């Protein structure tokens, strides 16, 4: 069946308050015919109650919480699902406000592509740069700069070019971003979202949806080296055989592969790769499988099987960019639990190296602390050796969270810069 | 490097990863199994995650006493086939014990009452994680919910203070009395669920397929007749060929007119539908604009 084999694109949207993000998504869903009759009826009724006019407010499709509808803002990420004949889409609609950066990060962390929205009247503003920077920090390789509300600047090509140039200059400094698409749109009336625009005949590019359908994202998440974090050990009650269960985090695992069990450093060979449906020749990321090993070695949750030829060195210290998400600040000597893949260890923040100035995106001098929504580089000492890759090499084995063990809150999202 | 996983393979792998994380990190999980299609998919995923071992958790059904008999029969048969343990938490017992008061009259339902029964059972057994089959495409409050959804000591959801959940790094740490609801099917759509059921050849309760049934019309929906459902005088029962798109309580789950009698026919019908499953068949969501959000804050699935 064609619909089950189409590839999936995960995308995130971010923008400032009032630049029409929810309207854009509503338009995308509506014009892609992914809004069902009863949802539309609900939105039409709510639009009438709120705005009094006959126009359907498409932004009400995505703002799902009572408080969001009341205040007309997005507080937390909402997920939407739609499909065209070419592709399936998982869309994370993220809040743009700096106060909800942690929620934006939740939504954008799994995305292949980010749509950054600007209001054509305002052009590239601080939030635009911050959102694009966070997207690049998260390893998102593809950005769409959607210049919205073109109707309010008389569909001016000059204005669009000016904004595109501004952003292009800034984006040159974003490492890791492979391509930026610039699209002039009017989300409220649908121009260049799903359908082209008669009012902007000067625009020769594709519509937003066409771009989303065709952008190539394969290979964005890992550099191909085998990484298999062990999640769970299954013991066959009859044969007593042990199967190691996990999700392939990088590369491909095959029977016969020589692997090293980290952090112990023991070498062995993959005997079999299995699912409930039987043995596989190979399994690539991000497939969940079990493997058996040729030798009787000690393997448990938290261990990682890596290709013998390109295994990382276990480390006692990592440098990472963290986005701080708790109200209580991060200070030097702070102690936390770290979860990286299936590894859980304790860490001490030995050093705060720098903090990002969200206005200039310069990395400032060593700060005394990181406050909520700050992004900075830190050096963490771990209680026992961990196995990690740089985030740019592998998003699964280079990402971690920090947990405050007194409150159990998730207080930081981290990306390893050097392991 | 190519990614050859199909869309369903990717969803399956994500769900298996979630279930194994719960097994590894929580002390005492439970899987909520209603006999509905989503929880039937959850059971299949549990097999994929943990066989040839046993499930590292029991199954639990919150039985309102107003379930479709066909579904209860299916539930018991499926549990026996799997050889796993089923706990039945009974709303009738909550009523008998005076924990909740039965609604009466036309439109009475035990839907709200089951929240108390669920929370009591979670406390009684000391469960710190409960798998549910909810999906984000079902409803807009659910579209906002995390995969690991933290619940306080009262079972409540605080939509404005959800734990950040970047990547697939789930934080399942809870204190005594707190718990997480875990939704491995968060990123599945209704069509994905049906396509997966078809691909895996899963058996379903027969009420999901077109059959003749005595029904009556109310608020534009068709409800099954039953002893415990009070009808208004004008709500004359009649026989219609219907199937169910969702399976909840008989008192709040509507049937749809359909001739789809096989899985491929149902999948084709779902692919072409213009109405959401909850909008078409669930009276419990029609109460207000924020009906689901309010129920979740109170501890509902």
Description:
The complex is a heterodimer of chains A (419) and B (301). With 419 residues, chain A is α+β, with helices and mostly antiparallel strands. Chain A has three domains: 2-214, Rossmann fold; 227-310, Beta Barrel (Elongation Factor Tu (Ef-tu), domain 3); 315-418, Translation factors (Elongation Factor Tu (Ef-tu), domain 3, Beta Barrel), CATH 2.40.30.10. Chain A contains eight helices and 23 strands. Chain A has helices at 2-5, 21-31, 37-51, 66-71, 101-108, 126-137, 157-171, 208-214, and strands at residues 8-14, 78-83, 88-93, 113-119, 142-148, 179-184, 227-229, 232-235, 242-247, 252-254, 258-262, 266-275, 278-280, 282-284, 288-293, 304-307, 315-324, 335-340, 343-356, 363-364, 375-386, 399-403, 410-418. In chain A, the strands form four sheets. In chain A, strands 7, 8, 9, 11, 12, 13, 15 and 16 form an eight-stranded antiparallel β-sheet that branches. A six-stranded mixed β-sheet of chain A has the order 2-3-1-4-5-6, with helices on both faces. In chain A, a hairpin with a 2-residue loop joins β12 (266-275) and β13 (278-280). The longest helix of chain A has 15 residues, at 37-51. Mean pLDDT of chain A is 90; it is low at 1-6. Chain B has 301 residues and is an alpha/beta fold. In chain B, 33% of the residues lie in helices and 16% in strands. Chain B folds into two domains: 7-187 and 290-297, HUPs (Rossmann fold, 3-Layer(aba) Sandwich), CATH 3.40.50; 193-285, no CATH class. The longest helix of chain B has 19 residues, at 7-25. In chain B, the strands form two sheets. In chain B, strands 3-2-1-4-6-5 form a six-stranded mixed β-sheet. A four-stranded antiparallel β-sheet of chain B has the order 8-7-9-10, with no helix packed on it.
Question: Helix and strand layout, with pairings?
Answer:
The complex is a heterodimer of chains A (419) and B (301).
Chain A: H1 2-5, E1 8-14, H2 21-31, H3 37-51, H4 66-71, E2 78-83, E3 88-93, H5 101-108, E4 113-119, H6 126-137, E5 142-148, H7 157-171, E6 179-184, H8 208-214, E7 227-229, E8 232-235, E9 242-247, E10 252-254, E11 258-262, E12 266-275, E13 278-280, E14 282-284, E15 288-293, E16 304-307, E17 315-324, E18 335-340, E19 343-356, E20 363-364, E21 375-386, E22 399-403, E23 410-418
Chain B: H1 7-25, E1 29-32, H2 37-50, E2 59-63, H3 69-82, E3 86-90, H4 91-96, H5 113-125, E4 129-131, E5 148-151, E6 179-182, H6 190-200, E7 211-218, E8 221-224, E9 238-244, E10 255-257, H7 263-272, H8 277-281, H9 291-297
Parallel strand pairs in B: 1-2, 1-4, 2-3, 4-6
Antiparallel strand pairs in B: 5-6, 7-8, 7-9, 9-10
């Amino acid at each position: 069946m064609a619909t089950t084999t189409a590839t999936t694109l995960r995308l995130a949207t971010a923008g400032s308050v009032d630049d029409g993000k929810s309207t854009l998504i509503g338009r995308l869903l509506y014009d892609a015919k992914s809004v069902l009759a009863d949802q539309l009826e609900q939105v039409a009724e709510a639009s009438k109650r709120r705005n009094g006019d006959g126009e359907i407010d498409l932004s009400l499709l995505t703002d799902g919480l009572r408080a969001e509808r009341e205040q007309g803002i997005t507080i937390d990420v909402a997920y939407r699902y739609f499909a065209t004949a070419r592709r399936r889409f998982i869309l994370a609609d993220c809040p743009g406000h700096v106060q909800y950066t942690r929620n934006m990060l939740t939504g954008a962390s799994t995305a292949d592509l980010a749509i950054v929205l600007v209001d054509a009247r305002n052009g590239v503003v601080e939030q635009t740069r911050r959102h694009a920077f966070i997207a690049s920090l998260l390893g998102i390789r593809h950005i769409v700069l959607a210049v919205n509300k073109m109707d309010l600047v008389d569909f001016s090509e000059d204005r669009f070019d000016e904004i595109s140039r501004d952003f292009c200059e800034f984006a040159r400094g974003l490492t890791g971003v492979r391509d930026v698409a610039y699209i002039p749109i009017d989300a409220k009336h649908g121009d260049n979202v799903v359908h082209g625009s008669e009012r902007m005949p000067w625009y020769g590019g594709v519509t937003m949806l066409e771009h989303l359908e065709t952008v190539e994202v394969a290979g964005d998440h890992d550099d191909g080296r085998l990484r298999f974090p062990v999640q769970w050990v299954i013991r066959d009650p009859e044969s007593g055989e042990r199967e190691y269960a996990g999700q392939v985090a990088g590369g491909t695992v095959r029977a016969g592969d020589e692997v090293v069990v980290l952090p112990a450093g023991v070498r062995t060979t993959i005997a079999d790769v299995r699912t409930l449906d039987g043995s596989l020749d190979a399994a690539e990321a991000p497939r969940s499988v079990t493997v058996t090993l040729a030798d009787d070695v000690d393997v448990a949750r938290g261990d990682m099987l890596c290709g013998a030829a390109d295994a990382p060195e276990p480390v006692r210290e990592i440098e990472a960019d963290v986005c701080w998400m708790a109200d209580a600040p991060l200070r030097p000597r702070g102690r936390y639990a770290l979860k990286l893949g299936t590894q859980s260890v304790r860490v001490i923040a030995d050093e705060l190296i720098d903090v990002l100035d969200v206005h200039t995106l310069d990395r400032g001098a060593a700060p005394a602390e990181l406050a909520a929504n700050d992004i900075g580089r830190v050096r963490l000492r771990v209680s026992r050796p961990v196995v990690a890759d740089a985030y740019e090499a592998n998003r699964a084995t280079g990402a971690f969270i920090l947990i405050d063990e007194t409150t159990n809150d998730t207080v930081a999202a981290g990306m390893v810069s050097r392991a | 490097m190519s990614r050859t996983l199909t869309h369903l393979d990717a969803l399956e792998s994500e769900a298996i990863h979630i279930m194994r994380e719960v097994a590894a990190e929580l002390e005492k999980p439970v899987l909520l199994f209603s006999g509905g299609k989503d929880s039937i998919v959850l059971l299949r995923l549990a097999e994929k995650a943990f066989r040839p071992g046993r499930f590292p958790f029991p199954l639990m059904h919150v039985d309102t006493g107003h379930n479709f008999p066909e579904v209860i029969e299916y539930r018991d048969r499926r549990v026996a086939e799997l050889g796993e343990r089923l706990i039945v938490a009974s709303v009738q017992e909550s009523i008998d014990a005076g924990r909740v008061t039965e609604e009466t009259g036309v439109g009475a339902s035990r839907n709200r009452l089951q929240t108390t029964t669920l929370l009591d059972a979670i406390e009684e057994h000391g469960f710190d994680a409960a798998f549910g089959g909810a999906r984000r495409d079902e409803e807009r409050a659910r579209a906002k919910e995390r995969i690991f959804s933290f619940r306080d000591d009262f079972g409540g959801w605080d939509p404005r203070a959800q734990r950040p959940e970047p990547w697939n790094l789930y934080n399942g740490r809870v204190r005594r009395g707190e718990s997480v609801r875990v939704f491995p099917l968060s990123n599945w759509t209704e069509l994905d669920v049906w396509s997966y059921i078809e691909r895996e050849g899963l058996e379903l309760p027969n009420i999901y397929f077109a059959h003749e049934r005595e029904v009556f019309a109310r608020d534009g929906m068709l409800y099954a007749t039953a002893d415990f459902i009070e009808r208004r005088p004008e709500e004359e029962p009649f026989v219609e060929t219907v199937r169910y798109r969702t399976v909840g309580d008989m008192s709040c789950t509507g049937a749809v007119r359909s001739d789809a009698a096989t899985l491929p026919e149902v999948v084709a019908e779902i692919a072409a539908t213009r109405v959401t499953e909850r909008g078409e068949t669930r009276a419990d969501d029609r109460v207000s604009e924020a009906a689901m959000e309010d129920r979740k804050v109170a501890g509902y699935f």
